[in-house]
Amino acid sequence: MDKENFIKIMKQKLKENKIDLTDKQIELFYLYLMTLNDWNTKINLTAIKNEKDIIVKHFIDSIAFKDKIEGNRIIDIGSGAGFPGIPLKILMPEKDITLIDSVNKKVMFMNNVIQLLDLKKIESLHVRAEDLAYDKNYREKYDIAVSRAVANMSTLVEYMLPFVKIGGKCICLKGPNCNNEIEDSKKAIKILGGKIEEIIPYQVEDNERFLVIIKKVLSTEQTYPRKQGKPLKEPIK
Fold first, then answer.
1. N or C: which end of the chain has fewer CB within 10 A?
2. Pairing of β 96-101 and β 73-77
3. Domain segments of the chain: what residues?
């Protein structure tokens, strides 16, 4: 996609979703797209290859919930190709953002994007959430934890809540038909010190999406998260 066409589509989608970006920020998204396209020919970063779909389903979807971001320090769990953390950093350059993923090639890609876009106050770490959550520099230090398309809710909250300080929030981006998943996660959320605050339906074009917002009301017990693989194989029920 040439730059002029990208800018036209991006501005249209931003307007539809009531998001304001400067011309410089839009240029950063274009560079992000070009880098993603280049790396996608070598490693599988995202199943979505169509450039317009990337704009809508990755870029816009990652920043459509901007009004729910409170506080300064954000952690993105299972960032993959950098969604939603890198789009949030482009939108909110003042925020302090940590990206984590267990796949090193994806972390290498994110570090490449961070360098190319000259982004500041952002780090990308090759680490599992189950391990990093026991580092005192990260445990219960974040205002917001975000995650998108990583795991079912019962597993996901065990990854996320240990990073969030009391009073902070988890923002889980989920697709359609997630009602049963949310219901099944309520016990895990309570055990881990959280409480569902809001479930917000929204649309990105024809894509039905949900924001599940969980407030951290109590400190998470030191026994959580459990060791590697346990939250995925044996979710709290």
1. C
2. parallel
3. 65-233
